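Lab notebook page, bench 4
Experiment: in silico fold of construct C2
Operator: M.H.
Input chain length: 385 residues
Purpose: comparison with the prior construct
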Amino acid sequence: MMCRKRATIAALAAGLALLLAACAPRGTSDPSATTTRGRTASAPAIGLLLGTSPADHALPQARVWEGDAKLVAEAAGESGAHVVIDRFGAGPGSSDVLFDARVASTTGLNSLIINSQRQEAEKRLERGFAEEQASTTPGPINLISGVLSMAQHLQEFAHQTTDVVVFGDAVQTAAPVNLAEPLQLADPRATLQSVISQGLLNRDECQGWRVYMVDGSLTPAGGLSALQDEQLREFWREFFATCGGRLVVWDSTLIAFPASGQVPAASWTRQHRIIIPLAASVLFWPNQAVLLPSAGQVLDQLARKLTLTYPRATAEIAGYTAAVTVPGGPTALALSRARAQAVAAYLEAHRVYGGRLSVHGYGHQDQIPGGPALNRRVVVTLYVG
């Protein structure tokens, strides 16, 4: 039975001074266990946050998480760490405390028994991980809520170091942040401010955390482009830095655990650039430079960004096409420039001074991985420095 109330969590945390062999599954406790509070300042804590979106379970990449869970379990057994397993997906976090891997006492036990107990506890952790991984919750991704739930659970027992591993789709789409929107994803600092302004993140929420994010770009549509992956990574790097932690791993798997260091800031942040790739399929009719009726929703946001958020920024608008030819259609170079010009004309019509805009067409130069769909694009670069 899952532990869903904070009172239950607190009671569980206070009673989890068990030997590894006595670690009980989901929501059970040992009445003879001694209190951990006040005795565990040197014990590390490990949090596992598992995504529940369809992308986190339908794609083959998610299967490698089992090996990652084993790596974490072995580290937890060796260090006697407290381990909390939560999940995130639609709505608030599920608030599940499933496992505690700490060895509280080894009095009178020989090394063979201790090793056996530790191995059994590691297997329990892996089983708990697999059970959570198997569940799915449809709806918007709400990783922020999962992080806040994890922070509450980790506060229930004293610990010295904190490692938190996030497995799964990190494209937050639950309000107030929608990282599936190109403009919000491209400007992580401004997007993060909306989180802070609504009181969803405190400066000490994740104090001292080392955060590992695995398969953050694993979306229902597949993977993100290299630029989008970097933008998503930058948002979460800024997010955890803001609440007192640091992002140490952003990858498709855990190479080592625990790890040190820190993921560096994206190069374009130091150059005061905001790069916004807009899919041609969102803006234009196929093989034309005529804006779709729905293009206004995206371009209105871009116009507001240029008039309100960055009123002094200049914008470079670059059109690109896929490396395919359409019989009887315009040349790649002409089409790419015409599309860039159409975007510029829309912005001028919506109070953006034309002298701030430059237009370029590059045809099928600079192809990026992902096939024709990702290469049919208009890339808007704001220079805000």
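Observations: The domain at 271-383 is CATH 3.30.1330.60 (60s Ribosomal Protein L30; Chain: A;). The chain has two domains: 6-268, 271-383.
Next step: discuss at group meeting.
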